[in-house]
Amino acid sequence: MARGKVVINEDRCKGCRLCVTVCPVDILQMAEDRFNVKGHKPVQVIDPEECTGCAMCAVICPDVVFTVYRVQRKRERTAA
Ligand code: SF4
Ligand code: SF4
């Protein structure tokens, strides 16, 4: 089953929230406890296990904050 992993370059984020509006599983949120070098609250992933790897966040982000990897999980073997 393919799942995703996103790597966030926090310091590039300008806090526009576009990515938050497009994530189909609603796992992107603006950080409330810190600011990046530009003075914005950066985006963060609140539930990485739910990422599907759809890359919508990377497509819509104007500042190339996301790198998305598709992760191929091995199927569990069942006893014959
Ligand atoms: S790759 Fe898709 S599911 Fe994962 S954080 Fe980005 S928009 Fe959400
Ligand atoms: S779309 Fe890009 S710049 Fe805008 S909040 Fe999301 S990560 Fe930050």
Write up this protein.
The structure is a single chain. By secondary structure, this protein is of the alpha+beta class. It has one domain: Alpha-Beta Plaits, CATH 3.30.70.20. Helices cover 12% and strands 25% of the residues. It is elongated. The longest helix has 5 residues, at 18-22. It has two helices and four strands, in the order E-H-E-E-H-E. The strands form two sheets. A two-stranded antiparallel sheet has the order 1-4. A two-stranded antiparallel sheet has the order 2-3. Bound molecules: iron/sulfur cluster (SF4) (2 copies).
Question: Any descriptors?
Answer:
Alpha-Beta Plaits; binds iron/sulfur cluster; 25% strand; 80 residues; two-stranded antiparallel sheet; alpha+beta; two-stranded antiparallel ribbon; single chain; 2 helices
Short description:
By secondary structure, this protein is α+β, with helices and mostly antiparallel strands.
Number of separate domains = 1
Order of helices and strands: EHEEHE
Strand order of the largest sheet: 1-4
**CA-to-CA gap between the ends?**
21 Å
* Average pLDDT over all residues: 93
Largest sheet: 2 strands, antiparallel
What is CATH's topology name? Alpha-Beta Plaits
As a whole number of angstroms, the C-alpha radius of gyration is 15 Å
